[in-house]
């Protein structure tokens, strides 16, 4: 895999993570408009291990989906055969 493919994946990952952070409030507002209510938790409920695990699991799933979407530009690159030929020619020179 060439340097540019790694660069594209890294930049896609950065953009998707930043977009996820920036759009979190909008997603919550949309969920509220769709009828999903924000849970009214007591401080004791917030401190429960089940709440913490659910929160972290939800964030992990969201970041994972964002990273996968961020790698979408890789579908537009070729199979890499040309890159391998160029690398072989450059290394023999």
UniProtKB/TrEMBL annotation:
It is a multi-pass membrane protein. It is found in: Membrane. It comes from the Eukaryota. Keywords: Membrane, Signal, Transmembrane, Transmembrane helix. This is Transmembrane protein 65. InterPro entries: TMEM65. Its main location: membrane. The chain crosses the membrane at residues 57-78. Residues 1-29 form the signal peptide. The keyword Cell membrane does not apply. One of its GO terms (biological process) is cardiac ventricle development. It comes from Marmota monax (Woodchuck).
């Amino acid at each position: 895999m060439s340097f540019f493919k790694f660069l594209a994946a890294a930049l896609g990952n950065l953009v998707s993570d930043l977009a996820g952070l920036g759009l979190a409030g909008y997603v919550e507002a949309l969920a509220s408009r769709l009828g999903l209510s924000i849970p009214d938790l007591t401080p004791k409920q917030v401190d429960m291990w089940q709440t913490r695990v659910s929160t972290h699991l939800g964030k992990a799933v969201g970041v994972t989906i964002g990273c996968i979407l961020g790698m979408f530009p890789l579908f537009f690159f070729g199979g890499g055969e040309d890159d391998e030929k160029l690398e072989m020619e450059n290394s023999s020179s």
